[in-house]
């Protein structure tokens, strides 16, 4: 059983962290994830995360409504900046 | 200091990753897009029209010269969202939309080459134009693909939602705005 979950960084989140992903010790509520990442990467929340959405195992979660939902070890969390395809 | 565009992004996969059934196809690829294949994929004896849209990469953004463009994605989520979009178009146009295909290119796309091809077949041309336009707008609004434009003085991650600007030049006061990421953080070296 994994003792961490994976956080994936794309686009500006990837640029800011300099990484594609992190292994984060879980379980952790959704409410605690952004503060955790802010501590790891100072300024991240204000500059990048504030405009990002969040997916857990490919399903979007609502940062307010799902705040107390727990991210489990082994889960895949995506930090999703504003998109720009086309 | 001007940054030189990096070497092409590592391919996450070869060939084309797709979700498809008999009348729908969504695909992502690092290769050149095949327009003829997209059109052939949607041909139907029930259709009186095939409409194709080809998006190409521009050499400028608001007068600034773009040297290179690059697309990255979250592959499984982007494919899922693309599927959701075309299945929804199929179910809202059950008798008129016969088949639809959307393919998007990833990695470095040289200026002037194709980044997206939408092809669909409909009974008549009017709904073909309309559905193709609706499809493109939904894709640009929702699919988890990100474009970075490289200028002579650095790279910028673009955002579709705020009218195409994607950055807040002053870095303050705009926090929380959709698509707003201060330009200085976008211009850092990527890895």
Mean pLDDT of chain A, to the nearest integer, reads: 96
Distance between the termini of chain A: 40 Å
Helix content of chain A: 25-40%
- The number of distinct β-strands of chain B equals 12
Main β-sheet, spatial strand arrangement of chain A: 2-1-7-4-5
The coarse overall form of chain A would be globular
For this structure, what is the CATH homologous superfamily of one domain in chain B?
Answer: Molybdopterin biosynthesis MoaE subunit
Number of strands of chain A: 7
Rg calculated over all Cα atoms of chain B: 18 Å
Count of individual helical segments of chain A = 3
Tell me what portion of residues of chain B adopts beta-strand conformation.
Answer: 35-45%
Sum up the structure in keywords.
heterodimer, A: 86 residues, alpha+beta, Ubiquitin-like (UB roll), 5-stranded mixed beta sheet, two-stranded antiparallel sheet, 3 helices, 31% strand, B: 191 residues, Aldehyde Oxidoreductase, domain 3, 12 strands, 35% strand, disordered N terminus, disordered C terminus
Describe this entry's structure for a reader.
The complex is a heterodimer of chains A (86) and B (191). Chain A is an alpha+beta fold and 86 residues long. Helices cover 26% and strands 31% of the residues of chain A. Chain A is built from 3 helices and 7 strands; from the N terminus they run βαββααββββ. Chain A has a 5-stranded mixed beta sheet with strand order 2-1-7-4-5. Chain A is globular. Chain B has 191 residues and is an alpha+beta fold. Chain B has a domain at 16-59 and 67-147: Molybdopterin biosynthesis MoaE subunit (Aldehyde Oxidoreductase, domain 3, Alpha-Beta Complex), CATH 3.90.1170. Chain B is 25% helix and 35% strand. Chain B has a 5-stranded mixed beta sheet with strand order 1-2-6-8-3, sandwiched between helices. Chain B is globular, with a radius of gyration of 18 Å. Classes of the chains: A alpha+beta (86), B alpha+beta (191). The A-B interface holds A 8, 10-12, 14-16, 18-20, 43, 46-48, 50-51, 55, 58, 78, 80-86 and B 55, 71-74, 76-78, 80, 104, 115-116, 136, 139-148, 157-162, 166, 175-182, 185-186, 188-191.
């Amino acid at each position: 059983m994994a003792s961490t979950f994976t956080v994936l960084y794309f686009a500006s989140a990837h640029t800011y962290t300099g990484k594609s992903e992190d292994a984060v010790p879980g379980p952790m509520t959704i409410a605690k994830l952004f503060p955790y990442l802010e501590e790891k990467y100072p300024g991240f929340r204000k500059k990048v995360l504030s405009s990002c959405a969040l997916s857990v195992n490919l399903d979007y979660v609502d940062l307010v409504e799902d705040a107390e939902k727990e991210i489990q070890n082994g889960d895949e969390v995506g930090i999703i900046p504003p998109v720009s395809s086309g | 200091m001007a940054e030189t565009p990096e070497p092409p992004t590592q391919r996450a996969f070869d060939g084309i990753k797709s979700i498809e059934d008999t009348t729908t196809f969504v695909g992502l690829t690092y290769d050149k897009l095949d327009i003829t294949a997209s059109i052939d994929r949607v041909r139907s004896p029930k259709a009186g029209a095939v409409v194709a849209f080809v998006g190409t990469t521009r050499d400028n953004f608001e007068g600034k010269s773009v040297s290179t463009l690059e697309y990255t994605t979250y592959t499984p989520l982007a494919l899922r969202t693309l599927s959701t979009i075309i299945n929804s178009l199929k179910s809202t146009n059950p008798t008129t939309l016969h088949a639809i295909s959307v393919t998007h290119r990833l990695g470095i796309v040289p200026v002037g080459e194709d980044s997206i091809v939408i092809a669909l077949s409909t009974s008549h041309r009017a709904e073909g134009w309309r559905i193709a336009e609706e499809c493109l707008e939904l894709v640009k609004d929702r699919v988890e693909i990100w474009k970075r434009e490289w200028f002579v003085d650095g790279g910028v991650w673009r955002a579709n939602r705020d009218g195409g600007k994607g950055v807040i030049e002053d870095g303050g006061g705009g926090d929380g705005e959709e698509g707003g990421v201060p330009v200085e953080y976008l211009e850092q070296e990527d890895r």
